[in-house]
Amino acid sequence: MASAAEQEAEPVRDGVRPSPAVEEAGRRAAPVVWPGAPTPLGARCRVGPDGVAGTNFALWAGGAEAVELCLFDADGTERRLPLNELTHEIWHGFVPGVGSGQRYGYRVHGRWDPWTGARWNPAKLLLDPYARAVDGDFQLPAEVYGHVRDWPQQHVADTVRDDRDSAPFVPKGVVVHDDDDWSDDRRPKTPWPDSVIYELHVKGFTRLHPGIPERLRGTYAGLAHPAAVEHLVRLGVTAVELLPVHQFAHEDHLLRRGLRNYWGYNSIGYFAPHAGYSASGTAGQQVGEFKKMVRALHAAGIEVILDVVYNHTAEAGELGPTLSLKGIDNRGYYRLQPDARRYADYTGCGNTLHVVQPQVLRLITDSLRYWVTEMGVDGFRFDLAAALARSFHDVDMLSPFLAVIAQDPVLRRVKLIAEPWDVGNGGYQVGAFPPLWTEWNDRYRDAVRDFWRGALPDVRDLGYRLSGSSDLYAWGGRRPYASVNFITAHDGFTLRDLVSYERKHNEANGEGNRDGTNDNRAWNCGAEGETDDPEVGALRLRQLRNLLTTLLLSTGVPMLVAGDEMGRTQGGNNNAYCQDNETSWLDWSLPEDPGRAQLLALTRRLLALRHEHPVLRRRAFFSGRPQGADGLRDLAWFTPDGTEMTERDWYAPAATLGLYLSGRDIPGRDARGEQVTDDSFLAILHAGPRPVEFRLPAPPWAETYELVLDTSLDDQTRAPGTEHRGGETVTVAARSVLLLRVGG
């Protein structure tokens, strides 16, 4: 900060000391600002009075005393224009002659009173929450903090205002002209029951792909490249779920350690595609590049789902930087504690957006509609969705956010996926979200992991998870596809690491291996980490086949994580959020290993099987009741002796479970009104360490059985075709799955 003598010698306006560039800009003739309009919010190119082209700027800033629009020339020269029109707390103005590519930001004036939550500081250049593109990197020097970051008494540092100009150190919004009507795009509109989700990172999926030109790797254009799309199509997935692509910033504690936020769960621009993933430029070109990526995926029949982070922002808590919302209206945008200096934190990231406030709800829904209508996406996965469903304190399934989504004519028609928890009290809400929503089902994850590592006390929970989790979702008109089944996600071990490590190995994150969960529910098959032991290696490959087979035969919507189909590893790091390197990037050489190639082939085969057979993609829950005169049920469970399970069997320790799926009793009709019928299947899951003799259910369940796959075999081309008779006893290898098609 400047000394007292320096402060007396330099001109001061509203606590802001203009830089030489700003003073020079002040000597120029300032552009005229016409009144403009308060809607839409953001910067929109339009034709003004008398046919004059320009841009309308509109910013909601409740409680502010004044707002300045700051325009930046190519050399960084700043021109400040006061927005004098105020309509319903929206400051607005039309600037003739300003068009696409113009870089801009805002300075917002008001009281500095952190004790009441007021943190206005016009020395800080603020990003427009509605900016369609962002140019420049977010670094975090002391100048970008509204308070004096390095104040000696840190317990009161957030109360001391920092008057240094932040403009040279923060990115700028970019005016983007958008006249795309998407008339040439065809959305796949895959029904939920037919969906298979593939979670991927735009950069990590493409960064090392040898078939993508080097200049496109790690970008939206790289994901749109035929080499990337071909893998998705051949695999058989129907949707990609992209880790956050909203403009995000890197946390200070990472930058200090020479690391970066890789996952992107630190949003600061809800309308802007993250500029770091653009191959074509950051002066608005990233918008067009993203759209071309969406079109390329749609043309291949693949939907685009965005992982979105509306629960918090990159501005953190009271000691965090001032980048956008905090300086526009801190009290209006964030949930504050009774001590208004402090933030309510239901996210573990320092702040929580106050979704009950109309302007915050408008920001979120405007953003969602923008990505659907103008960017072409097909759905959203909401990070820590329970935080969005909180009314004032408690999670409320009648909250304003959920009510608005339910009635919105655009949003209620796209795919909506909740991560149904947050870190606050009462935040775990699996099974509680209303119709229209699907949910990440972590109870499925835990049950399947525990079964295959031999840690389930009985099979009650597993039975529910394999058959669609009716105990969680059979209410209010919800269907089996309300459950997004997953065994791994970006957060946690990869599938290969799940069978190779029992303990996290996060030392590279620089947090003393304290970060990341300790509840991995993993089994390393006898050795921690990589090993040359051939028996351990073979067992791990078998466990990978077991886990993938279980996932893709279960009722519900399966989610795969990019690279799991090829055995990708992160070296035991279960929280690789800051590993923007080979730890996280997908290694495309993996299929050169025969075992990995066979794993990829099995995944493709399982997805093809799922696509071919509606009995594996049920639109309604099983009834478990007899469906005909022969007494056969649509779902039946068997013990190894070939008899149906009793109530006692569900409560007894068991490592083997037989699952009979009837294809003749599928509820619903096809598009022509015809009854849907299919083959019937028997799946035998055996997690025990030794082989088991399993008696195949006798007639009337089946006259014959045809073996479809056997995960004890490395090469699945040897498995199909073997026939067995009903009542015959077959040997199920240790830790394996048999899938048999019912005949006769």
What is this entry, summarized?
This protein has 744 residues and is an alpha/beta fold. It contains 18 helices and 29 strands.
Question: Which tags fit this structure?
Answer:
744 residues, eight-stranded parallel barrel, 19% strand, six-stranded antiparallel β-sheet, 18 helices, alpha/beta
Notes on the protein architecture:
The chain has 744 residues and is of the alpha/beta class. It is 22% helix and 19% strand. It is built from 18 helices and 29 strands. The strands form seven sheets. It has an eight-stranded parallel barrel with strand order 12-13-16-17-18-19-20-21. Strands 22-23-24-29-26-27 form a six-stranded antiparallel β-sheet, with helices on one face. A hairpin with a 2-residue loop joins strand 5 and strand 6. The chain is elongated. The N and C termini lie far apart (85 Å). 51% of the residues are buried.
